[in-house]
């Protein structure tokens, strides 16, 4: 059973606007959450992470919000740029070495 | 250049013919891992290794073997491939496998088993 879920397979956003990608999880033991970005024909690349003891982490245009009570996290990209068009994977870890990924959300930023 | 290198990038094989996908990293990372990516299922962890001679099962280890004899290499072995192992495979490495450590991924190996 999928412990990390991304219920939106795709998202389209106008350039300059905010992109919000969502992720839900079921395991309350997850202590770290990560976002990866993947371009076609390439491996995923790390974007940003957050510890379960925090509710927000920011890195430039990227902010991740964590709502533990709702078992929900979201990635905000502001402002969105055409180069942000990619598949975004949410991931979670409960113990060192083990990672669970979501199914991915394909983001298209329209110029 | 820091990188994770997988070989081959593409492979078509027949059912039952043993194969090995190699993975090598040049960052002196302790942790390495294998994933498969399938449509609608995302990335699923197959095996991981916290250090030399230390390996553990991930979420979907059935039908796969791994070994970690040297720090830089982590080959994925399919002793008797079956069509349901047709997938896109990724190798990854990170400093120590901690939840907050950035993992570096290879470019992927697209395997087709007929």
Description:
The complex is a heterodimer of chains A (111) and B (114). With 111 residues, chain A is mostly beta strands. Chain A has strands at 4-5, 10-14, 19-25, 32-38, 45-51, 56-59, 62-67, 72-77, 86-95, 98-101, 105-110. The mean pLDDT of chain A is 96. Chain B is an all-beta fold and 114 residues long. Helices cover 0% and strands 50% of the residues of chain B. Chain B has strands at residues 4-7, 10-13, 19-25, 31-38, 42-51, 54-57, 65-66, 76-78, 87-94, 104-105, 109-113. Chain B is globular, with a radius of gyration of 13 Å. The A-B interface holds A 2, 4, 6, 31-32, 34, 36, 41-46, 49, 51, 89, 91-94, 96-104 and B 4, 31, 33, 35, 40-45, 48, 50, 56, 58-59, 90, 92, 96-100, 102-108.
Quick recap of the structure?
The complex is a heterodimer of chains A (111) and B (114). Chain A has 111 residues and is an all-beta fold.
